[in-house]
Write a structure and sequence with these properties.
- With about 230 residues, the protein is mainly alpha-helical.
- The chain is built from 9 helices and no strands.
- The chain is globular.
Length: about 230
Amino acid sequence: MMFKLVNYRFFPNYQAYLKLVGFVLVTGICTLVLTQPVLAHHALGGKLPSNFFEGFLSGLAHPIIGFDHFAFIVAVGAIAATKRQGVLIPILFVLTAMVGSILHLTGVNLPATELLVASSVLIFGILLGIKDSPKILVISALAALAGIFHGYAYAEAIFGAGTTPVAAYLTGFTTIQLLVAFVAFWLGKASIKETTEGSSLSLRFAGWAIAGVGLSFLSTQIWAIILPSPIG
């Protein structure tokens, strides 16, 4: 009885909180398990796709087995749920990610890609975690910029492949990113409905969890720059 009273008094939205905590934990554990047998975020173990099926499979897998990409997509979908017409944010991100991939495939060089990808995860985690995030135009601009670098990083796994597997790869990663973002968007909307505020405790918790993921990846990238691994 005392436990029930404390829950309602201090955590009026504790059911939504527990649901999103469970979502974050399950997806995080599943993703970490999936990342163990793969090499360099590549679903085919480093082998370039040679046909449409392999290209599509690789495209589907990359945003999932790349935990930094996955965390960012979840953050984009969740923060979109807090904005009016926010559904346009993940769509914009996915479109610019395709542009970033095309830039890489056409030989354009973007510096410090992995560093900026990790930074984007940290930034969007913080934006989701704080109570009053910037207006939709600011979020959209940041999402579009991040999309360029995420897409550029995606293309590394397909660079050098033929036209058919490249087209399939772009289709695959576009499809899975929209799916993950819309699931996060739906969960975010469901969480907000259970509170009278513009954002919920559960969403802010998820934001700080994602910020922690981003900080971890960013620290790894900075450490690799300071102390690069010896060749061979």
